[in-house]
Amino acid sequence: MGDPLDSREAQAEAVVERLQTEYPDSTISLRYSNRLELLIAVVLSAQCTDERVNQVTADLFETYQTPEDYANATQEELADAIYGITFHNNKGGYLQGIGERIVADHDGEVPDTMSALTDLPGVGRKTANVVLQHGHDVVEGIVVDTHVQRLSRRLGLTEEERPEAIEQDLLPVVPEAHWQEFTHLLIDHGRAVCDARNPECSACVLEDVCPSSKLDAEVDLASGEEW
């Protein structure tokens, strides 16, 4: 079993340093050219792969370019336009509602506060954090997606289970200067090495400090289940 460092702070610092070396170009993988496209793409990415979202938005963003375009479309039209995205019917309604709210309440501009963003349909704290960080250069939290949720537990950085609780538990542990980068590093590592079902622990740069290493640990701390 890997030996985690003496404190969560030291563990987090080691994770960031090693993954920075492993993934020097780590960044968001969604494709967008403005704040509205970023917001739409992140909403669509919930429970859907970024790769699939990028395929769908390539055409979507050609047709729907302004908040008014989304507001004036029907939910059915938008659902058809994003067919292939998980829960496309529900998300079609979100896109229409987002367009309406941005036009009515924000003068056609994507808002730049957590409270205003999370008031939009289909936008939770995770989505709002991404839009703030990459659309407005405002970093006030850590985006906790499924990869961050899994790896932060697996690495012994938190014992919390819900994304919101995990974020609050990580904020004092991960240096603020690395809050944004931390998410992308864990996403890259989760995709490349530390997947949910069969992590490649023998190829992992964090194996020696990972208390979940299946090379000799009995339990995956991410799930609480035996390997």
Automatic annotation (TrEMBL):
Record-annotated HhH-GPD domain positions: 44-192
Catalytic activity: Hydrolyzes mismatched double-stranded DNA and polynucleotides, releasing free thymine; 2'-deoxyribonucleotide-(2'-deoxyribose 5'-phosphate)-2'-deoxyribonucleotide-DNA = a 3'-end 2'-deoxyribonucleotide-(2,3-dehydro-2,3-deoxyribose 5'-phosphate)-DNA + a 5'-end 5'-phospho-2'-deoxyribonucleoside-DNA + H(+)
Catalytic activity, EC: 4.2.99.18
Pfam families recorded: EndIII_4Fe-2S, HHH, HhH-GPD
Molecular function terms from GO: 4 iron, 4 sulfur cluster binding; class I DNA-(apurinic or apyrimidinic site) endonuclease activity; DNA binding; G/T mismatch-specific thymine-DNA glycosylase activity; metal ion binding
Cofactor note: Binds 1 [4Fe-4S] cluster.
The keyword Iron-sulfur belongs to this UniProt entry's keyword annotation: yes
Gene3D superfamilies associated with the record: Helix-hairpin-Helix base-excision DNA repair enzymes (C-terminal), Hypothetical protein, domain 2
Cofactor: [4Fe-4S] cluster
Residues given in the record as [4Fe-4S] cluster binding sites: 194, 201, 204, 210
Domain of life: Archaea
InterPro entries linked: DNA_glycosylase, Endonuclease3_FeS-loop_motif, HhH-GPD_domain, HhH_base_excis_C, HhH_motif, Nth
GO biological process: base-excision repair, AP site formation
Coiled coil segments of this chain: none
Swiss-Prot/TrEMBL keywords: 4Fe-4S, DNA damage, DNA repair, DNA-binding, Endonuclease, Glycosidase, Hydrolase, Iron, Iron-sulfur, Lyase, Metal-binding, Nuclease
Role description: DNA repair enzyme that has both DNA N-glycosylase activity and AP-lyase activity. The DNA N-glycosylase activity releases various damaged pyrimidines from DNA by cleaving the N-glycosidic bond, leaving an AP (apurinic/apyrimidinic) site. The AP-lyase activity cleaves the phosphodiester bond 3' to the AP site by a beta-elimination, leaving a 3'-terminal unsaturated sugar and a product with a terminal 5'-phosphate.
PANTHER family listed in its UniProt record: A/G-SPECIFIC ADENINE GLYCOSYLASE/ENDONUCLEASE III, ENDONUCLEASE III
Family membership noted in the UniProt record: Belongs to the Nth/MutY family.
Identification of the protein by name: Endonuclease III
Organism: Halomarina oriensis
Record gene name: nth
